[in-house]
TFIIB-type zinc ribbon-containing protein
Amino acid sequence: MILHYKCPSCGSDMSFNADSGELSCLSCGRHENIESYPEELKRMTFSEDEANEYHCENCGAVLITEAETTATRCGFCGAGVVIADRLSGHLAPAKVIPFTISREEAMKAFIKWCRKGLLTPKGFMTADRIKSVTGIYVPFWLFDLNSKVQVNAVCTKVRTYTQGDYIYTETNYFDAFRDINLDYVKIPVDASEKMNDGLMDKLEPYPYEQLKDFKTPYLAGYIAEKYNYTDEELLPRAKDKISDYIESYIRSTLLGYHSVNYSNKQIDTRNVNSYYVLLPVWMVSYDYNRSEHIFAMNGQTGKVVGKPPISAGKVAMWFSGITAGTFIILKCASFMMGGGFW
Ligand SMILES: [Zn+2]
Ligand SMILES: [Zn+2]
């Protein structure tokens, strides 16, 4: 089942507008509020393996999609389409953070970022290096976790004092027990096989107060994917993300001792709640040094991840500059030594 948002006024293709947060028609300017938009998916039922072939509602062409794709653009007419049966049932996202950064803003940020790299190669932006600029809704699980922590530790306090001719060291031993209850809300873990986990982690944080109830028009005109991993499969990664925090919290309850030796540490973390959400990412893929690189940007906050391209020529100049400087310093030093201060 394909959803295509046709403008009721003029019949043109409508898509989600990141500036206004509405479903907009570029031809006549009509716009629709999405939050009050009727929810189609709840009224539809799909069988699991309903369709493998989809046709564009706008032009009738066959849509070529990967199995994970839930929203895309028709390769023939460019209309934004949403594949509804891949977004229903257990595949229905609970929430979405819509794009607030438009394609134009993302492009501007990319150019600025390239220029900020002092070593950006000349003509990089003018050359035809940019392969694609894509707004993607990446599937994430948000975990609410609870950790029950029990810790036994032998701690010492050491005191040194002088009495007469002797220096005394007094060591006091303490048996410490800590019973800790920790709650975490909305720990994000990306659920897409394609996306680089490290890259996605660096795009955080996402402002979760911007989470909206999921409605399909938010995806119109963008690319979206369904999750490859279930919340159960990703729970270990969520636990991993909070493990440093748990350790530092335990340490913070055992301050003021000279030494702390743990004799028992039990950490029991369980999944209180998990939500399937879609989070916005701008991806610019570009060619440099005959390989493809990715510039990624948080589609809500504008946070950028990646390294600006570095020109080999400029690096060489930069290094020769440093070498020349070093050489001069060495010459001065030898002159001073030879100059006979002694
Ligand atoms: Zn229109
Ligand atoms: Zn089409």
